[in-house]
Amino acid sequence: MASSALVQRIAAEILQKIQTGELALGAHLSAQKVADEFSVSRSPAREALVLLSEQKVLEQRPNRGFFVLESVQEPAQIHDEVLALEEPAEYYRLSEDWLNNAIPSEVTEQFLRTRYDLTKAQVIDILNRAGKVGWAEPKPGYGWRFLDVAKTPETLEQIYKVRSLIEPAALLEPTYLHDLTKLQRLKKEQQDMLNGGIETLPADVLLKNGIRFHEEFVKLSGNPLYHMIVVQMNNMRRLIEYRSMIDRKRFYKQCAEHIRMIELVEQGNNLEAAHLMKQHLSGSFAHKSPILKLRSETAETSPSLSGLPSLLEESTR
């Protein structure tokens, strides 16, 4: 039986950790440990470990779990469609409908239960997840409102403007920690991508590597507020990017710039690294803006929702 997308991506991330040295030869893995790390149940976690065991990446030992083997095979297939790990499938169905103007901006929980065939608990869960990252909010009384966060070129530009202020500033903090061990780990991950990972890793792993670089780089500032804001910005823009088709060629430039910033910080030249960071973010937005604009124009041609009856008149159950 073919493995699910979730299992495939858990396996791909574990494989990457082995390839980058984060998981050393002989490292022990258990289904519970993997489930906790990826915030999933034990079932897909164990399936991912069994899959890697069948590929001779891990060795399964009775009553002891799984252990990293020396021989590591490359992923057999490239996945250019991004299928994220972090959220349940129904969350992305809701995201997709909102991005494409397939649902109104104000809904009730009962409307979502009926539309997606979900339980009350599932609906509350996905709405709370959307609210946590800033694209949904509860209305006074009852009902929910969806927000135009990272849905248009204008809102995406606002996110990148904030990041262009925050991330360079974080590099200039006097408390910035020049932790060479962490910097070298980030550098190795980016170099491994340049050395072949860009062409072999699944698309969502490439995206997550980029996000991890920016969050960990800023975290070294010593000011937790910088890190908190960048994490929030990344969560908001994931609303657009989680199901994008990856332009792998763009990652060569991106990774090279990441490595150059690390080298500048290693040399103590945080000012130059901050300048490069600002240019880097501007270039990233310039690449994504036309894609989002095209999507926005396409969505505008879809059938209007103005004829739908008011969903706020529904009674919740």
Automatic annotation (TrEMBL):
Biased composition (Low complexity): 302-317
Chain ranges of the HTH gntR-type domain: 4-71
Protein name: HTH gntR-type domain-containing protein
Keywords: DNA-binding, Transcription, Transcription regulation
Keyword Oxidoreductase on entry: no
Pfam families recorded: FCD, GntR
Annotated stretches, region: Disordered: 296-317
Species: Pseudomonas fluorescens
Gene3D superfamilies: GntR ligand-binding domain-like, Winged helix-like DNA-binding domain superfamily/Winged helix DNA-binding domain
Domain of life of the source: Bacteria
DNA-binding among keywords: yes
